[in-house]
Specification:
Blueprint lengths: L9 E2 L5 E2 L2 E7 L7 E8 L4 E2 L2 E3 L3 E14 L4 E5 L3 E4 L5 E5 L5 E8 L7 E3 L5 H12 L4
Antiparallel strand pairs: 1-3, 2-5, 3-4, 4-11, 6-12, 7-8, 7-9, 7-10, 7-11
Amino acid sequence: MEHITETPTLKAPAERFTGDVHLNMFASPTEPARLAAALVRFTPGARTNWHSHALGQVLHVTDGVGLVGTRDGDVVRISAGDTITCPAGEEHWHGATDTTFMAHLAIVVGDGAGDGASWLEPVTDEEYAAALARTASRPR
């Protein structure tokens, strides 16, 4: 057993995120294990780039309100207690709304060569605004 009492908070890389995002990695894939897990905190308006995971991803919201969007235009408003599963290979993004912080646990199983993430282009301001508008009128 290993008792980890603290993980450093790191600024998420600007080439993969828009806005201020911070993460605490609490499980990193080290052979033979392949689990990667982090607490990811988004400031209002912050979001990931478009990306996919070779073996999928699970997001569990711990605080705040956010969005998860897919290439086909589906957008879900998420809040504390919600869990979202992103299937293997599905291009998606996630982040906070424009007025609230959002934090989630991000859990992925690596593909043997890292966490299996394929990072793509940023979500444009227009795509983000459209996602906000789409979910503003939907009841939770």
